[in-house]
Amino acid sequence: MSVKQQVDHLIVNGEIFTGERASPHLNNGAIAVNGNRIVAIGDARSLQERYQSESVTDVGGAIVHPGMIDTHVHAISLGLHSLPVSIDKASASKFSYADVKVQTDDESTDALTAAAAVALLRRGYTCFMEAGTVFETDAFAAALQRIGMRGMVSAPFGWDDVSIFESLAPATITKRLMERAPANRAAVIRRLERELTRNADKDALVTGYVCLYGECSATDALTRDASDLARQAGVLFNQHQGFVRQWQEFEHAKYGISGVQRLHRLGALTERTTLSHMNVMSDADAELVVKNRPGITWCPNNALHRAVHPQDHCRLPWLIDRGVCVSLGIDTTMYHPLGTAGMASLLLSASVGHRLDDAEPFYMQTANAARNIGYADELGTLAVGKRADIVVRAVEDITHTALEQAGALLALSSSQIPVDLVMIDGRVVMKDGRLTATDQTELLRSALRQRRRILERAGASAE
Ligand SMILES: [Zn+2]
């Protein structure tokens, strides 16, 4: 009689969506986890013949999938969900986003990051890339580590030339923001280097990457230095690019070439680069992207919200066909409910005449997303050797089930199927939709208190 191998966790009887396009689905499947890695995945019966564990979770046919990854979210904006802000005109709304986002301190960033983590976990995300706008990065990292969630963080507002915003969006660069985030190349590089020290620990849940704010707000020198730093450190280089036409035109007028062409000229348009948005690009830009293979984080909600298309042709579905790795981001969440980028990408793709496959948003938020944050070998799919970041959904009404696989993936990535269990790096961090390591109710109360503090201060400083 063969001896069964002892493992830390066995998840059995799941409808498993692996995130691997070659073998996407396992009916009645199981996953064996030891330490922080997946050691086996396959048919439940055969896996249980080979493995045993003190911790066996029978998920009773529920959907199981790799933890989803949002590759562009401004973390503090999650805590400000539904706040009536304007990024363009301070006078158009009660609060200017620029006034609000500079009011954070360690205490508020800790509380709002923890609250953001819960909101993401409850929608099946186990990792997210903070889009370079958190000032108190240590408080951010500490909050995620306490909960057990992954995140990526970088220098806040990496820029050294804000003339584009002075010209086109003056309300976004208040005096207070420029005090906290000076347009200074040396200071940005120092801060980037500091954030990268997090990566010395290979098992760190929160890692650093190189982020510039982008959209023509970095000189050639800063862009080159930051991209070199990313290459030396073996991490991702990321910036906003191609959000709206006016910003593209500004960059073209200033440098005589498009932003994408400028990145290419500076050696910053490589496979290690991920650009966020890319709503607006020329044919020549699109060809450069196909040739140089940077990843793209698509934020379809924001493209729809700002009515970028059809005035400017949306090229993302065509670029996907040509092998460009596109992932999804929710960006800011004042207007865009978390978890809706998948559905928005499908609707937007249809409206521009190139409907994506129903399953595509799922891959854009798993395997593609892992590649676009620089962790293709570690995250994004359920496969032997990968980190054990696993989500088990609940079935609470009939819309949480599906009759066929593509439909299930569509439902999964584009609606709000409740999350039951979340494992990250082999640890169960959420069970029955509640955090295992922290009092979720107290955490929410604390975040609401901190949000009030921030808004009070923003109101005071605006007067
Ligand atoms: Zn953004």
UniProtKB/TrEMBL annotation:
Q: Kindly provide the name given to this protein in its UniProt entry.
A: Amidohydrolase family protein
Gene3D superfamilies membership: Metal-dependent hydrolases, Urease, subunit C, domain 1
Query: Residues in domain Amidohydrolase-related?
Result: 63-429
The family classification in the record reads: Belongs to the metallo-dependent hydrolases superfamily. ATZ/TRZ family.
Q: What is the top-level taxon of the source organism?
A: Bacteria
Its taxonomic placement starts with:
Bacteria, Pseudomonadati, Pseudomonadota, Alphaproteobacteria, Hyphomicrobiales
Q: Which UniProt keywords apply?
A: Hydrolase, Plasmid
Query: InterPro entries, from UniProt?
Result: Amidohydro-rel, Metal-dep_hydrolase_composite, Metal_Hydrolase, MTA/SAH_deaminase
The organism encoding this protein is Sinorhizobium numidicum
